[in-house]
Amino acid sequence: MSNSTNNNEGLVRGLGLVTTVAIVVGAVIGSGIFKKPTVMAQSLGSPELVLLIWIIAGIITLFGALTNAEIASFIAETGGQYKFFEAMYGEFFAWLYGWSMFIVVQCGSIASISYVFSDYFQFFIKLPDFSQDIEQSVRIVLPFIGNIYPLDDIGTKSLTIFLIFILTGINIRGVVLGGSVSAVFTFMKVSAILFLVLLAFGFGNGSIENFTKDSSVYLNGKINIFTGIMVSLSAAFWAFDGWNNITYIAGEVKNPKKNIPIGLGVGTLIVIAIYLIINLAYIYVLPIEKIASSKLVAADTAAQVLGIFGGSFIAFAVMVSTFGTSNGTIMVSARLYYSMAREKLFFEKIGKINKKYKTPANSLLLQAVWTSILVLSGTFDILTDMLIFVSWFFYGMGALGVFILRKKMPDAKRLYRVTGYPVVPAIFVIFAFCFVIFTIFSDIQMFIQGKTQIINSIFGTALVLLGIPFYFYFMKKRKIEKSVQHTSSKR
């Protein structure tokens, strides 16, 4: 195998260590850090607890990243986590993972993040929409989900779809170009966050007392601490999500067995540091009660130091952040479906490489089309909420696989062994499954109390299991093709 290309796939190994780290950071930092602190302040009412939850979520995420890094150090193939699961549990389990990533998780994330970009774009230019009567006239009824209106907010949806196809086009033209865009926008978003932090501490007229002053709701005992902690952890984990996306693109990273583990560890540490300092800035400028009542805590913090320009600064920062995150997610996710297709467990054309640009163009286009359908449906947030617990189930199974692979593949040359083994991966596995169990329990409670019409976790599981017939279809098709090839070779 040459240093520049993967001869088995035809993909270009053009991503160095710096770009790899930038992709990890860029895939994680999206819109969550600008919005989730409000949810956490409402649920906890204590600045100390809010900061503690960010630290706990960061440490757990780091444990997951370090655990994944060991596997990436000796299984460095395009498809990443999909290939890991294949080695751990076989093709069927890997297929269910790949299916859930395509049908909802990754495409839903791209839709959601890109939609936030379009939403903030309207801070500068108002997008046209139809009248409400026209928007409501076109209705589609989906089982369990209810009515959806494709023309609702059509201006915002149109820009979102346009953005998705622009970024898809960039990534079709080359992994180096796509990686460079990710690196540039990661640098811009981190710079914007650090600039806000400097302004907050330098000119925010904040107070150190804000770090110890609890809200009246918390002091009056009106907050259920256990529920508040779990809701806050869920919010924080949403902000940290995407840390393992870099593994999907292993076939295009230079020296992946070394650079991906380093990228995972260093990138995750950078994100933890950034999240902590921006939350310190929020709390320094705004008391916890103001954070809890804020619609956008970052905008209120910026307004405190920049006045009327604060809103514009944050709108720009969010647009930069979501643009970069969407680009990175589009780039890496398509490699997962490409990898499935290469094994004839997905549509055959999705496994083709563009001869000119050496990229999985068909996979990128399929992803763009399906994501656009989710955008038009307006169901992407509903669907991703349903599958949050599914993502954590797969995270837990991925970490559990470290123990399995140490027994199945003891002689494999590991360039990195997870620090603190077996404690670090064990803690992550236990936490992941506790989080999954709590989510199911919470969903059932909300259903019983009439706060939701469906049990999200059960419906999410049904969406995953919906892929089983497709798995057997592709397996049967692959078996027939092999049989035909075998017969032809005998002739």
Q: Your description of this structure?
A:
The protein has 491 residues and is mostly helical. Helix content is 71%, strand content 2%. It has 20 helices and four strands. The strands form two sheets. A two-stranded antiparallel ribbon has the order 1-2. The protein is globular.
Elements, N to C (H/E) = EEHHHHHHEEHHHHHHHHHHHHHH
How far apart are the termini? 33 Å
Helix content bin: over 70%
Strand content: under 5%
Q: Total helix count?
A: 20
Measured on Cα atoms, how large is the radius of gyration? 23 Å
- How confident overall, as mean pLDDT? 88
Main sheet? 2 strands, antiparallel
Decide which structural class fits the backbone: mainly alpha
Poorly predicted regions are 1-8
- The total beta strand count reads 4
Shape: globular
Placed side by side, the strands forming the largest sheet appear as 1-2
Identify the notable features of this structure and list them briefly.
491 residues; mainly alpha; two-stranded antiparallel sheet; globular; disordered N terminus
